[in-house]
Amino acid sequence: MRYIIIGAGAVGGAIGGRLAGAGHEVVLVARGAQRAALTEHGLRLKVPDGESTYRLPVVEEPAELDELRADDVLVLTVKTQDVESALAAWGPAPVAGGGTAAERLPVVCAQNGVESPRLALRRFRRVYAVCVWLPSTFVEPGVVSAEGTPLTGMLHLGRYPHGTDATARLIAADLEKSRFEAPVVPDVARWQYAKLLSNLGNALEAVVEVLDTEDHLAFYARVRAEGAAVLDAAGIDWASTEEEKALRGDKIRLVEIDGAPRRGGSSWQSLNRGTGTIEADYLNGEIALLGRLHGVPTPLNDLLQRLANTFAREHRPAGSLPLDELIRLADEAVAFVQES
Question: Does residue 253 surpass a pLDDT of 70?
Fold first, then answer.
């Protein structure tokens, strides 16, 4: 199988680089400065046991590959806010032997949140979802760091909306030869919702300096509890924290690369790169949506969603909101809901 990584950033670069390092055929999809750097210098993947450079084909759109192949696997690793445009570009692409990518090829959705596979299912017949546990960093064009060891990440994989099949098992086998653990599960959404609860802290990490103080951790606990209450109201099951910890064990430990600690996750990295967009609408915003559908107030997640979008739109520096100011805004938001 040939893997076409649509979005060669932190997650896509780590998956693509590890697959290439294990001998699999990989094409990277990128644009702008990232495409230029990948084309000129290759993908530099930094991991705890060293650095490798992969000289891989790099394209921006399907036409640059002529026809797609029947054995291609599309791995969608752009942020969820960019999924629609990626699906619109790649879905109609012709496949050798007839038909289009949307009709014939598997698309593997490897993003935070739960919305991407649903968006893909509107266009593609064969959709697979991944719960991504993959600590990785992309802040410099052409360079991706993956800080996990001894495994690079854990990627629960399943057919969407549910089930497993031979394709999922083949993809998982390739991933497991590439320094990942890739359990094939019939209920991948259950793992994605567990990860969603963890990712509710992404916006907090992005806008407020992470100090790991008691106040900071207590605020995150409130945000997560609000999310859990919404999932309970919606009747949505998710894997417990104990189940997650038991499965991961010490398979993925974070280590510093080049003596530099990992400074922030995907949302922090978006602000740091000044992309102008952020994924909060599909993380905290998912909780806000479910809260409105099921009559559960979500003032804290509403606030974080709004702040993250404001920071991205106005290109404010990551981590520049004092925690005391966030707590004041949160108290006002909660009071407003209680009075309404």
Answer: yes
Position 262 confidence tier, pLDDT thresholds 50, 70, 90: confident
Rounded to an integer, what distance in angstroms lies between the CA atom of residue 285 and that of residue 288? 5
- What is the band of 261 on the pLDDT scale with cuts at 50, 70, 90? low
Mean pLDDT computed over every residue of the chain: 95
Burial label for 268, CB within 10 Å (0-12, 13-18, 19+), is buried
Give a three-class secondary structure readout of the chain.
CEEEEECCCHHHHHHHHHHHHCCCEEEEECCHHHHHHHHHHCEEEEECCEEEEECCCEECCHHHHCCECCCEEEEECCCHHHHHHHHHHHCCCEECCCCEHHHHCEEEECCCCCCHHHHHHCCCCEEEEEEEECCEEEEECCEEEECEEECCEEEEEEECCCCCCHHHHHHHHHHHCCCEECCECCCHHHHHHHHHHHHCHHHHHHHECCCCCHHHHHHHHHHHHHHHHHHHHHCCCCCCHHHHHHHHCCCEEECCECCECCCCCHHHHHHHHCCCCCHHHHCHHHHHHHHHHHCCCCHHHHHHHHHHHHHHHCCCCCCCECHHHHHHHHHHHHHHHHHC
Q: Which residue has the tokens 């804290």?
A: 300
Look at the block and give the residue holding tokens 């060891």.
Answer: 149
Amino acid at 333: A
Of 107, 27, 17, 122, nearest to 66 (Cα)?
A: 27
Closest CA to 74 of 83, 43, 114, 192: 83
The per-residue pLDDT for 263 is 76
Strand partners, 153: 180
